[in-house]
Amino acid sequence: MKQNNRWIDMGLLSRFASIGACQWSLLRNGIWNEIRIQFRHGFYYAYALVSALYLIILQLVPIEYRESANVFITFTDPSVLGFFFIGGLIMIEKGQHLLDPLFMTPYSPEYYIWSKVLSLSVLSVLSSSIIHLFTFGFTAHFITFLCGVWLTSIMFTLLGVGVAAKCTTVNEFFSVSSLYGAISMVPLLGWLNLWESPIYLLWPTQASLLIIQSVFEPLHIMEGAYAFLYLTVASILLFGWARHRFYRYMISIQGGGKRL
Amino acid sequence: MIEVHELFYTYPGSKQPLLQDMNFQIGTGEIFGLLGPSGAGKSTTQKVLIGMLKDYTGSVKVLGGEIASSNRTFYEKIGVAFEFPNFYMRLTARENLQMFRSLYSVPTVEVNEALRWVSLEDYADRKVQDYSKGMKMRLNLARSLMHHPPLLFLDEPTSGLDPTNAAHIKQLMIKLKEEGRTIVLTTHNMALAEQLCDRVAFVVDGKIRLIDTPARLMKEAGQTQVEVKYAHKDGRVEALHIPIHELSQNRQFHSIMNSQELLSIHSHEMSLEQLFIRVTGRALHEAEQ
Ligand SMILES: Nc1ncnc2c1ncn2[C@@H]1O[C@H](COP(=O)(O)OP(=O)(O)O)[C@@H](O)[C@H]1O
Ligand SMILES: [Mg+2]
Q: What are φ and ψ of residue B100, in 5° steps?
């Protein structure tokens, strides 16, 4: 495939150039289709249950720790759920050989990736909202908090797309992704006061933590600007990377050896 | 509709080109059959034509443009039914068609109507995982037709089907032909090709050996043939097919008469299938799925 070694310019510039050409109806239908599939695979029931469980846990946590617990839970679960779910979804589609017929329609890998990413971010936002609203009610910085969850979810799902593209089984995905997952969670060390260092600012997930935390401790304007900008840039770069891996490992083997 | 000129295609990782020097044109409204044994390269040819394999050499023009540089709107205009009918197993037939339908921006048919085309309307709300192979193949065809594509690619649409299902699909294809669709049909079912195709190409080892109308082929095939069975010295038995009027000049026949043990001579009319064997030296059904 021609795209292989030029993913930066293909992935970013051509996408930027064609944002105007995006067919919103196709993206919207793609997202609805994904939500239907995720619903059918029980993702929504699972997260209704998980959210309810967290609500109970938060009630059990002493009130002085409840805010920190909410930040910790939101950051480590609803924000990153897409990272793990995307692996399952892509493996199912690889296993059922659905990519061939899907890409025989105007649906392209770019729409495919964004439909998955944005649909899973809906689940992240819903789950985080339920957990937060039922524990603390509608707080002043709730919307900022949701934006943080949303951007973090997008970033992690894009990471998951890139990882899943190369994997062939769910087990392989989980073993590879646990490494990526561990690396991305490093800023938690600082957040938990285990080992403090400004180096965490290099992690986009540090930006996530800052924004999620801001629902209780409002951010300084510069911090906020850094965090939102960094998450956005990280997501754009990850999209280029995920797209590159997708074409390289999933599209270029199309038509080859994909037999039932 | 389709113009292929000096097409070569090599799969990544293999040294030899699989498709070698293919040349053919397909006109609007034509049903063009790619015939050949398993592994001949029929599906690969089709995958080049539908833009899945872009690293070919030569020129492949489909619907007016070079396929390697086509954009996604190309897929609004073609319908593809792959050899293997793949769907979201946990979704119903209706949900599957609904999903695929939603990906087009050209007008599409109602899902119920599409299911009626392939007589699956009574099974619309059954999950695809509970479908039989025949039902999935029919659903596969319905999926490829929902956006009324003028150009269709059908890869082995009757492979592995019982006669009832096969007849059903054939009937539908006759209807499509009457509607004036252009169809590229991949098959190793000679009878199907004879009945449906305007022209057929014999594909063997990635090369096209012959392109002609079934009528002309049948005319040639209709000549009386002589089947000469003989044994080699090691006991292997082989058969030779020679048109009856060429018998006296056929040198192989003479050498068999002289040096090898002649077992039998029969005369009979040649079928299209035997013509294929004679032209290509290969059987069509040597590895039927
Ligand atoms: N991705 C691939 N890489 C290498 N070889 C392949 C690939 N896909 C198919 N082939 C080989 O190409 C040959 C032709 O395959 P195919 O076009 O599917 O044949 P047909 O459809 O005529 O049965 C086969 O020998 C097959 O093993
Ligand atoms: Mg084939």
A: -65, -35
